[in-house]
Automatic annotation (TrEMBL):
Residues 10-126 form the Glycosyltransferase 2-like domain. It comes from Limnobacter humi. NCBIfam families: glyco_like_mftF. SUPFAM superfamilies: Nucleotide-diphospho-sugar transferases. The keyword Hydrolase does not apply. Keywords: Cell membrane, Glycosyltransferase, Membrane, Transferase. Its main location: membrane. InterPro entries: Glyco_trans_2-like, Nucleotide-diphossugar_trans, Trfase_2_rSAM/seldom_assoc. This is TIGR04283 family arsenosugar biosynthesis glycosyltransferase. The keyword Kinase does not apply. It is found in: Cell membrane.
């Protein structure tokens, strides 16, 4: 069948209280699907009509699976991964857009990767009003390439084998992506694939709270995390700052 890939890809999208935009997010993601691909939308207990909209989209024939889980991005992504059938898992934040060409680049990279232990991320471009966002994205891309520590905004992907071997995302309110990458890079033989293909992520938190203020906040929170401060304390600092 034309367009069929040997790679089975499961896209996992966590959502929570996204009624205003969830139809756009899901329609956009469904357009990426090819034979052998699937989309799991995992709701974390929305109370704003998000689930009703998702059921309506399913009734219209959009080809995605809807799953309910406990609230929290880590819990939602783990729940989706447990149900997904693909050998390749792509964790896509709702407000991150991945062009079809970038999905094709991912599939091609997987097809040419030896072994079953691999993970990676895309280069990110931040879409927003602040003039410093291109610089922020450049540093994110370079830092993750050097350290092999990436963030969810960069659309993390991995083999099912590696995801299961690492135990999935940790049960914590934030920094789950950083923790998971740190564990993945310690797995013997695991291959890191920093793809140059782009994803586009929303710059709304930089625009809403001020670009430089957000940069300083996020770097300080990561530093506290690496120095061993509890995730609960860091999460409270994040909530207070917002």
């Amino acid at each position: 069948m034309p367009g069929t890939s040997a790679v089975t890809l499961s896209i996992i999208m966590p959502v929570y209280n996204e009624a205003a935009r969830v139809a756009y997010f899901v329609e956009r993601a469904c357009a990426l699907l090819k034979p052998g691909h699937e989309l799991w939308v995992v709701d974390g207990g929305s109370n704003d009509g998000t689930v009703s909209i998702l059921h309506s989209l399913q009734s219209q024939g959009l080809p995605f699976m809807l799953l309910q889980s406990a609230k929290g991005r880590a819990a939602q992504m783990n729940a989706g991964a447990m149900q997904a059938l693909g050998q390749a898992l792509l964790f896509l934040h709702a407000d991150t857009e991945i062009p079809a060409a970038s999905v094709d680049t991912l599939v091609n990279a997987i097809e040419h990767t030896q072994g079953s232990l691999w993970w990676g991320r895309f280069n990110v471009r931040i879409v927003g009003q602040s003039l410093c966002l291109p610089m922020v994205a450049w540093f994110m891309n370079q830092r993750s390439r050097w350290t092999r520590i990436a963030t969810g905004d960069q659309a993390l992907f991995c083999s099912r084998t590696l995801f299961e071997q690492t135990g999935g995302f940790p049960s914590q309110p934030l920094m789950e992506d950083i923790d998971w990458c740190a564990r993945a890079r310690r797995v013997p033989g695991a291959v890191f694939m920093p793809l140059k293909a782009q994803v586009l992520t929303s710059g709304r938190r930089w625009d809403d709270h001020g670009a430089w203020r957000t940069i300083v906040l996020m770097w300080s929170l990561r530093l506290r995390y690496f120095l061993g401060e509890s995730v609960e304390s860091i999460a409270q600092r994040y909530r207070d700052a917002r």
